[in-house]
Amino acid sequence: MINTVLNVLSDIVLLIGLFFVFLGMLGLLRLPDAYNRLHATSKIATLGAFGVMLSIVLRTGFTPLGVKAIAVGLFLLLTAPIAAHMITRAAHRHGVGLCKESVVDEYGKACKLSKK
Amino acid sequence: MKKYISLAAVLGIVWCFIHGTFLGIVWCFIHGTFLGIVWCFIHGTFSFNSFIFGLLIGLVCIRPFRFLYKPESNFNLFSPPSRIISIIRYFVVLIKEIIKANIVVAKIVLKPKIDINPGIIAVPIRCKTDLGITAIANTITLTPGTITVDISDNKSLLYVHCIDASDPDAVAASIRNGLEKYVLEAFE
User: Residues B64, B106: one domain?
Assistant: First the structure.
């Protein structure tokens, strides 16, 4: 009984996770510039991958596979923000411009001030 | 198994000499325990052998990066129980914010016409310690429509790329009142 419930739950979580991964990739294609695309990949795709890991844990329990999935999920949550931060900073320092819809760029102003 | 224990003891003493102080063995113990547990998670089996194996590999791996951080700076390992409660509260708020963030960005992605006003804004922060600043920066990146780009030289401003920067003051206020309160309670 409880096994069936866990399996169904794991399927649902897997579907939600895959849907979020799909949304992340859609955002990567549709949003205008590098910074906005990182919003899609760093947040939505992270939650999607975390959902897939959670579904593995629900299905297998505390076997070696499930424990590895827990570790992978935690490392994803820890490292995805750092990767996004480093990519945005590197892009800005290399002079990748913001898209034309952008309204403010206080970081660019501050960089110019510190150079003078 | 006895062989492993004596190996660990020898490595601890060597670590003492490398580090130069007696504190070395304390740090060897703390880092070693943590890395051993992490290795158990990665390996998937919780046994004494894999714990000791992870401890030995981990100590060798982190030695070259020792200069990157200062252990005596600011995290008290034996924190009072009230701090543990506020850390738990911080993680609950964090999970709630992550789910909210995903729904906000998902809505933007799914709209037929993309209509956004992105921009990089400066947000003043109250956190002083490195750990607090790291925590608030990571939290900002995981929450709705914001990514931390950089920190100012005097560590008082965070530059945040925001997917809807039409009202910068409102974004800064929501970060200050919503998230930073919990970070200040939990990590400072």
Answer: no
